[in-house]
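Q: I'm writing up a methods section and want to include an example of the input and output format. Could you take the sequence below and give the corresponding predicted structure tokens, formatted cleanly so I can copy it straight into the document?
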Amino acid sequence: MSKLNNFIKNILNFFDRHLIMPITRIVFKITKRLNVPNKKFESWLSKQTTLLFLSLFLAITIFIVVDQKIITFSSQSAEVFKDQQVNVIYNEEQYVVEGLPEKVDVTLIGSKADLYIAKQSVNNKVTVDLTGLTPGTHKVNIKYDQGLSEIEYSVNPSVATVIIYEKVSDTLPLTYDIVNNNKLDNTLIVNNVKLSVDEVTIRGAEYKINQVATVKALIDVQNLPRKEAGTQTLDDVALKAYDNLGNVVDVEFVPSKVSAEIDLASPSKKVPLNFVPEGTLPNGKAIGGYSFSQNEVTIYGDSETLSSINSLDVVVDISNLTSDSSFKTEIKKPSGVKSLSTNYVTVSLTITDSSSEPIRLSIPLSKINLGEGLIAQPLDNDSGFITVEVQGASSVLSSIDESDITAYVDLEGLSEGTYTRKVIVKGTNPLAIYILKRTEATVVISKKS
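A: Here is the clean output for your methods example:
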């Protein structure tokens, strides 16, 4: 009970100090200036009812002033809401609308308290109502719906010119493109793709529908659940429409997304390595033999590329070698091959003395890439043969004969007439050196009789 009495006493003291006493002082000063008899006035003012009525009158006066905003206690503020989404009201099944901004800026002006309340409201939104508008061009107002009448607002932009089109549709076959294929493991390829649908319906303004040349499903291999060989399904595959220049055309799709069954494979093939010397050994030296740290490698790629490759060359610079040597040499990856089982091989060379007696062989001169319906005859004194001198170690020369060497001229693109062409010589044994005694040959091209 004592606590309650103390609480009431504290309240009364508060009003006495902050309300009754200040009012008494004010009234006293007024009466003193007006020469009102002090004793009578003090007697009237000392009455409790008088003070209560005066306090009540002053409190009511202050309330009216504040409530009616006769006195402004807080300054106006402004706040800008950036990138507010524009909500459009129209028949989406029947029409297509162009020209409306997707987002606008909204400026709110009001007291800080009202602005705070406005920001907390979930109903505030920017809207454009196109209900009842027919196809054509229209100017429309962009409005900000808010529940506080005390708030002033402006929208930027506040007006937009829109074009309304009738929505039409068409059905096109669906193909696919592989996206991020370069980020797939080098030993894997997309072997096959089966889409859940063969065709899709596109919808939009007629002029855009007429622009569409193809519709593709974009298969992003980065979204595959597993990056390994086998068949797996990818859902929610995005669709894109393109014109004849490859530009994206903005249309709707039915269905909006498809699924795809994707077969990942890892085609491979083992091929032997070929030793290919580059450069020239010092005079009197020859390669007596060579060996690789491994004689074959596995190549990965598509089946067509693999079928065209039967071996890989390992190019070794032999310039200035005078003794046995070993090299770690890079294996060049052919075009179309995605990966090699190893990128380097160690080559060991045996350097020996060259034979002092090279061999000379007479090799038939072949003609390649001759046009259809044409024949080529040699115009020389050797009747279509050319002399090749073979140098190398004695052990190498002893195993070489005419069948190991090919000499030819390339006649690609030539018609009837007489031509002098460069002679190209190749041998099956890379340890030997093949030297042409005549580097050019003259041929006569004529039509078949």
